[in-house]
Amino acid sequence: MRLLRRANHCMELITGQLHMLDHLSPVDYAVVRTALGHGAGFDSPGFRRVHRSSPQLAAAFDRLLARRGLALIAVYDRGYEVEDLYQLAEQLITWDERVIVWRFHHLKVVERIIGGSVIGTQGTPVEVLGKRIDVRFFPELWTVRDEITRRSPLGADGHSSS
User: Fold this and answer.
1) Which of 70, 145, 146, 150 meets the CB 3.0–4.6 Å disulfide criterion with 74?
2) How far apart are CA 162 and CA 159, in angstroms?
């Protein structure tokens, strides 16, 4: 839990650091870009590690729930009884959200500097980055909220079920 909290904070920090590139003019970045070759933010060792380790985190969390004999919805239903699992689930969704936010900011920085209708350093059209933003490592943590909302007195459509 402590390491995941720290990783979440790190993701927040690197998202902020990404905006240092906002201070480069597109002309100045063109010089920097030649040094990057075909490298890209998505190709960085750190981002590759994010994509390798996140599914492993999901699998470990699923195994933990199985060992405890709990479905994910039960973690949210039972709350304080399984506080450790609840807090872990919330840290995982924070991780997912922060990676998505990084991807979004990365796309906007790229568009700001090189444009949105060009080929990026990876040889991929910039608009493809937009399609990669909402990749979720822990989809069950997002959909469990749908289930909770559907069961609420207002239901999924926002109207009373009575």
Assistant:
1) 70
2) 9
81, containing H or E segment: none
Contacts of 65 (CB under 8 A, 6+ apart): 71, 72, 75, 85
Sorting pLDDT into bands at 50, 70 and 90, what band is 41?
Answer: low
The reported pLDDT for the residue numbered 47 is 84
Q: Which two tokens stand for residue 14?
A: 């690197």
Q: Which residues, 6 or more positions from 47, have their beta carbon under 8 angstroms from its beta carbon? A: 41
Which phi and psi angles does 119 have, rounded to 5°?
-90, 130
Per-residue pLDDT at 157 exceeds 90:
no
- Which segments within 5-77 are labelled E, that is strand? none
Q: What is the DSSP string of 106-124?
A: HHHHHHHHH-SSSB-TTSS
CA distance 1 to 57: 11
For residue 40, give the amino acid letter. Answer: A
Domain boundaries in the chain?
2-37+55-149
**Highest mean predicted confidence (pLDDT) among 31-40, 92-101, 150-159:** 92-101
